[in-house]
Amino acid sequence: MELNNIKRVYLIGIGGIGMSGLARYFYHLGCVVCGYDKTHTSLTEALHNEGICIVYEDLKDSIPMSFQSPDEGTLIIYTPAIPKDSAILNYFRESGFELYKRSQVLGIISKGMFTIAVAGTHGKTTTSCMIAHILKDSGKDCSAFLGGILSNYQTNVLYGQNDIVVVEADEYDRSFLTLHPNIAIITSMDADHLDIYGDHSKLEESFLLFASQLKQGGTLIYRQGLPLNNGFTYAMNDNAQAMATNVRIEEGSFFFDFNDGKVSIPNIRMGIAGLHNVENATAAIEAALHVDVDPDAIREALGSFKGVKRRFEYIIKTSETIFIDDYAHHPEELRAAISSVRKLYPEKKLTVIFQPHLFTRTRDFADGFAEVLSMADETILLDIYPARELPIEGVTSEMILNKMTLANKRKLGKQECIDTIRNEKPELLLTVGAGDIDAMVQPLKSALENV
Which reaction does it catalyse (predicted)? Predict the structure, then answer.
């Protein structure tokens, strides 16, 4: 595939965060961009408003005429999350089109560029967004393909004037093995996606392969304690090469000092909250230093970083009510979010609403979810969001609920949950999950505010 020849792009599953970034990228290049997704979301609405054609019915008749015969000017991209029996997917396959996964296209785009790739079972979205913001804010510049909506720019794709590109490297379906970065960052390698990998050791093998794909002379940066070597370690208050020390909260903001043995940056104020984000920032700083960003510019950029939509995002922040929304959907992500909320608001009663994501993940990590959700004062569980999966017999939200040691726990439907929040008005609310719980954020906000 030659990028310069592409005139038309069709994306099957265009509403995904990664796919929508590619849609915006090719539209920015002047291509005709169309796509299919099964669900109307704020993101598909934004793409439509930007001029991108989207259909919501999986019918081959909905494909525009200009996409009905294969040629070198037409690119078809699909996400592995699309069902194999999709009518649109099979039309393109049966009509002789060559189909590309999102990860393959990302690999081709980044091939000739200085690539900073951030991988990890959690932490990768915020870390990659921090790096992109540091490079933009400092004047170093970059392009970026991100796994979340970067609040400073209200988009998931950035266009730069140089050859540096920041890429979120996704381990799902081994997608990140299409990348050959100059700087690779690995934030975590916890067991996840066991429906794909089978067991934790296979997931770790995939990360080791990713780390081995560095370009000659490249740099590996990874969190202290991961089973990697020949790289640059980082951690918070640990014996790593790059360290965040003197971590503290002052007037509601997180502060820390950075030192990697060569560069010290004292008194860094974080524009976002969370102990886990201090650790993410440590990796981002080290990556920025490796491309010669000025330390003072890094400090300024981290102070102005507004975070990523649905990553420890404040929905309400008043003296009476705190409402935070987070994408956490793995036990360790939940632990990080709940621990950070506890540290920020130790005197407030914490209510957590959690929507489990995937039947397989619920089955594989029910014990971990139960343990971490028991850290709250009150937990409300919603039904499992199935995403790409069919139900598994015996796997329900009750599987987690029954294992929890917390007394104040409930399983509610969505509307029942909203009504409960309206009646009980919790002072500290945390919503977590990767499914469609984001659609409940505004109704919950209205319920808390009596709107």
Answer: UDP-N-acetyl-alpha-D-muramate + L-alanine + ATP = UDP-N-acetyl-alpha-D-muramoyl-L-alanine + ADP + phosphate + H(+)
